[in-house]
C-alpha cells in the first residue's frame, strides 16, 4: 500500500459498453472533473462507447477510472497494466468486490484524487506456462476445468516439485489474493487480504472428503499434471477467458509473474 501519491490532473475513463443508466453518471463525472481542474479523456477501447460525450481519446493519464462491475474492472486492469497506471474502480455493475467507490461516492472520489488524498493498493499477476512454453498471465486466477459435461478430471498437484495430492473432480483454481473474491470464493476458498504474499489453490468439486483449499507462498511453483484423460482435454482459462487446453501427461506450471 502506497500513500502520499501524486495529485491527479489527467484522468482516463474506461467502459467496455454503454448502458443508458451510465449517461447521468458520466455527465456528473465530466462536471466534477471540470470543477476540480482534471482533464478527462477516454481510453482507446472505450472511445466508441463514449462517442456521444465530448471526451477526447487519450490513454496518457495519471489515473484510470473504470465504470462497471468486477468483470469490467478486471478488463480495465488488464488494459492499463502495461502503462503501470493506477486504477479507480466505480461499482456500476452487479458485483463490486474490486471497486473502490460506489456510484453515490464518485464526487468524493474525484475530490480526493484531485487533492492527492488516496492510497494505492498494489497486486501482482500470475504466469502460467504450457508444455509448448507458451505463457499467459492472469490478475485474478487461472482455472483448469474439465471439458466433458459428464466426465471427471484426474490430475496430480505439485508444489515446488513435491507431489501434494492426486485429485479427481471438476478441476482446479489457482488464484492471487486479489482474485480470492471471484471464482475461488464460489468454490469454498477463503477471502484473503490482497496484500498477502501468497497464492491460493482451490479444488473445484473434488471427489474427496479431505481435499481443501491450500494457501502457499507466492514464490512457489505450482504444477498440475493431467492424467487418465478420457475425451477432450481440460480447458485452461485466465480470468475467465479460455486460453488453451492440456493433454494427458502434460504439465501446466504456474508462478508469480
Describe it for me?
With 257 residues, the chain is an alpha+beta fold. It has 2 domains: 10-115, Rossmann fold, CATH 3.40.50.10330; 126-256, Tumour Suppressor Smad4 (Sandwich). Helices cover 15% and strands 34% of the residues. The protein has helices at 22-35, 70-80, 106-115, 183-186, and strands spanning 10-14, 39-42, 63-68, 87-91, 101-102, 126-129, 135-138, 141-145, 153-159, 162-169, 171-175, 198-204, 214-217, 222-227, 235-238, 241-245, 251-256. A 6-stranded antiparallel β-sheet has the order 7-6-17-14-9-10, with no helix packed on it. A 6-stranded antiparallel β-sheet has the order 13-12-11-8-15-16, with no helix packed on it. Strand 9 and strand 10 form a beta hairpin. Helix 1 runs parallel beside helix 3 (106-115). 37% of the residues are buried. The model has no long low-confidence stretch (mean pLDDT 93).
Could you give the topology of this structure?
Layout: E1 10-14, H1 22-35, E2 39-42, E3 63-68, H2 70-80, E4 87-91, E5 101-102, H3 106-115, E6 126-129, E7 135-138, E8 141-145, E9 153-159, E10 162-169, E11 171-175, H4 183-186, E12 198-204, E13 214-217, E14 222-227, E15 235-238, E16 241-245, E17 251-256
Parallel strand pairs: 1-2, 1-3, 3-4, 4-5
Antiparallel strand pairs: 6-7, 6-17, 8-11, 8-15, 9-10, 9-14, 11-12, 12-13, 14-17, 15-16
